[in-house]
Amino acid sequence: MYSEKVIDHFTNPRNVGEIEKADGVGQVGNAKCGDIMRITLEIEDNIIKDIKFKTFGCGAAVATSSMVTEMVKGKSLEEALEISNAAVAEALGGLPETKMHCSNLAADAVHVAIKNYQEKRMKV
Question: Which of 53, 78, 79, 96 is the 20 to 30 Å CA partner of 26?
């Protein structure tokens, strides 16, 4: 049902936690299944220097959150905005169809965090 990568990222999630003075914060959720993902970013010179996540949800939700942090850490904001939820699922070796719509919100959370960062910069 789940790939070895999904199981690995669920049982050994990377970048768990929260950046206290985050440059960008993104939170998304799915009311249908209850998954909630919160991403915090540290950005320096348009590069994601650090990223942390907190996720309330199923194993697939935790795995996608963990995977997206690895995918975007060290990338430019433009590169991170190009990553889709489908790309996250693909990097994990796929997800069951029943988990795609509700648990794979990870790229959305990153995009919201980047938008939050950009909006904060516009106000300065």
Answer: 96
**Domain segments of the chain: what residues?**
4-123
Counting other chains too, the contacts that 20-26 makes at CB distance below 8 Å and 24 or more residues apart are 22/113, 23/117, 23/120, 24/113, 24/114, 24/115, 24/116, 24/117, 24/118, 24/120, 25/113, 25/116, 26/108, 26/109, 26/110, 26/111, 26/112, 26/113, 26/114, 26/115, 26/116
Task: Give the Cα separation of 31 and 8 in Å (integer).
Answer: 26
Active-site positions? 33, 102
Return the CATH fold of 4-123: Sufe protein. Chain: A (3.90.1010)
Q: What's the predicted TM-score (pTM) here? A: 0.93
